[in-house]
Amino acid sequence: MSHEQHANPRQNVTFDSASESGHAHGYLRVPRAGSGPGVVVVQEWWGLTDHVAGVVDRLAGEGFVALAPDLYGGRTTHDAEEAERFLTELPPERAARDLAGAVTYLLARPETTSGTVGAVGFCMGGAFVLTLAAQQGERIGAAVPWYGIPGPATDFSGLRAAVLGHFGEEDASVPLEAVRATEQRVREQAGVDVRFEVYPAPHAFYNDERPSYRREPAELAWERTAAFLREHVR
Fold first, then answer.
1. Are strands 13-16 and 36-42 parallel, antiparallel or unpaired?
2. Is residue 176 classed as helix, strand or coil in its secondary structure?
């Protein structure tokens, strides 16, 4: 097992949060133009890793002001058992408070040109993205979950964002029946535009640090994501 405790070198901003400490940390990148629409990136259960930082960097390259909150307070891991422990030690309420703080912080940044933010998340972060969008209402313009959905009791009635999801048909941990059921519940409860795309790929097919990475589906899903964010985050 390998992890960093409260010393993640990727942290470069601190923002207010309703968590016990009153603040949270994250990794922020501004596009070369100096401004752009805001996007929050929600980590996988591994933590704020190089892969997640790479997503932030790539979004900045696409013209977005991108921020990944560090939900584990500096810890990262490449060990599945340790990642599961980190996740169980993260109360969903605390994660929601940190993510809400990130939305507020991003909207207040002078570089952010949009009145809403996009939310993009992977695995655990994909589930958090839909929960965040339901909690934050009109502050989230676009929600993009990748191979992650929240529990069946989630209330989506407050969600106002357009939704684009990416899922793998070979994903054993997120069955397609559950994906389609979630898509239908979002559509019925929120009445928003929802599109869940399915790819010939396993779980975590975008993560190029994992053996599950599949280049062609990953790049197609990325192109769709960038276009979707440009359309809906204003």
1. unpaired
2. helix
Q: Are the CB atoms for 106 and 67 separated by under 8 Å?
A: yes
Q: What percent of the chain has pLDDT over 70?
A: 95
CA proximity to 110, closest of 28, 48, 53, 43: 28
pTM exceeds 0.90:
yes
Q: Give the tens place of pLDDT for each residue, 138-149.
A: 999 999 999 999
Rounded to whole angstroms, how far apart are CA atoms 142 and 161?
5
Q: How far apart are CA 224 and CA 185, in angstroms?
A: 22
* Residue indicated by tokens 């899903």: 221
Phi, psi of 103, rounded to the nearest 5 degrees: -60, -50
Q: Residues, the chain, total?
A: 234
Instruction: Look up residue 211 and give its two tokens.
Output: 């053996």
In angstroms and rounded to an integer, the radius of gyration of the C-alpha atoms of the chain is 16
| DSSP conformational letter for 138 | G
**CA–CA separation, 42 and 71 (whole Å):** 8
CA–CA distance, 163 with 25 (Å, rounded to integer): 26
> Is residue 191 very low, low, confident or very high in pLDDT (cuts 50, 70, 90)?
very high
Nearest one of 30, 25, 52, 29 to 41, comparing CA atoms? 52
Tell whether the torsion through CA atoms of 122, 138, 24 and 55 is positive or negative: positive
